[in-house]
Amino acid sequence: MENIEKVRSQFPITKNRVFLNHAAQSPLPKPVADAMHKYIDESSSFATYAKEYEDLGKPFFAKLINAETGEIAVVENTSVGMNIAANVLHPKPGSKIVTTDLEYPSVVYPFLRKSLGVEVEYVKNVKGKVLLENVERVVDDKTAAVAISHVEYANGFRHDMRAISEIAHEHGAYVIVDAIQSTGAVSVDVKRDNIDFLTASCYKWLLSPPGAGYLYVREELIQKFEPPFTGWASVKQEIFNTTDFWDIWKLELSETATRFEVGSPSYISLVGAREALKLLLSVGISNIERRILGLTDHLIDSIKDMNLDLQTPEEKACRSGIVNFRVENPRQVAEELGRKGIIVSARSNGIRVSPHFYNTEEEIDALTDEIRKRQK
Ligand SMILES: Cc1ncc(COP(=O)(O)O)c(C=O)c1O
Prior knowledge:
Layout: H1 4-8, E1 18-19, H2 30-45, H3 58-65, E2 72-75, H4 78-88, E3 96-100, H5 105-112, E4 119-123, H6 132-138, E5 143-149, H7 161-170, E6 174-178, E7 197-201, E8 213-217, H8 219-222, H9 238-243, H10 267-283, H11 285-305, E9 323-326, H12 330-339, E10 342-343, E11 345-347, E12 350-353, H13 361-375
Parallel strand pairs: 1-10, 3-4, 3-5, 5-6, 6-7
Antiparallel strand pairs: 2-8, 7-8, 9-12, 11-12
Helix pairs in contact: 2-10, 3-10, 4-5, 11-13
Pyridoxal-5'-phosphate binds next to helix 4.
């Protein structure tokens, strides 16, 4: 990355911590914090807001995932996005949902509610990988949807979403993707990969505060589904905008993905997210992905050098920003590293390391030096 020092000057965290925990919650870059401060100042001094905030960051998120702005709704978080998708499907009795045994709870729980009346079938991982042949074996004509994380939260395994969509669609099943661990770190392309629903909070790889998230719904599906929650934000705004009256006698749902919005979102979070998305787009997601994979290659070399057990599948095509290696007492190790200013997480009997594009090989070395010291 050209001029890494200039990049790092946008990340105040670099002065205080070796922060390698973007799979948990990211620190805010300076332009993001500045935009949020400006919003607070404006709202406290004038109770007015810049016109530019009105798009709620949707055009920038759309660009990042290769969607149209009209296919994007704002949601509070990934879990809400997953629940919206789960509740619009109305699967036939006897249907099933296919997922994997590596999933985060919010991908699976919305489908485990008894009232939904579906079975959930888990494709089992093989040494941290979910094999396409096993997905193919489980998905059948009873499958209403495949619900899956693009990148798995504990070991960073990245699914081939295009191949999974192909399998699902052959059986008439929808593809519902939790992209919180991929968007902002690696390439996400809903058109290339034929995705039906995709959702992500912005507080991890999208370098934003909690409270901002987006839901993508494929254009052809938007008007097919009635939203599970409705409020002023779900309907066409034209009547109110021209007459200052709401038509409360009928429900005229928006023809765009805003029909899945309900009421006032967390504007301050979205002001931050909007700025963060602009920053990420200006760097370019392919540059970010290349940089992250370079840093994680460097980390994997050191892990192998120390003869530690790598829990992340190694092939480039299924790698992401997350690397996990096994240690004894991972929670204690993560806490001790934290006291030395090196921030990582304990997950799945190991240490989960998740660097972003502004991190350096020297920071990775600071972590592995500490791990080496513990081995002596
Ligand atoms: C794969 C995955 N999905 C969902 C979440 C939580 O999402 P949210 O807080 O946006 O509901 C996490 C958080 O760690 C995650 O790793």
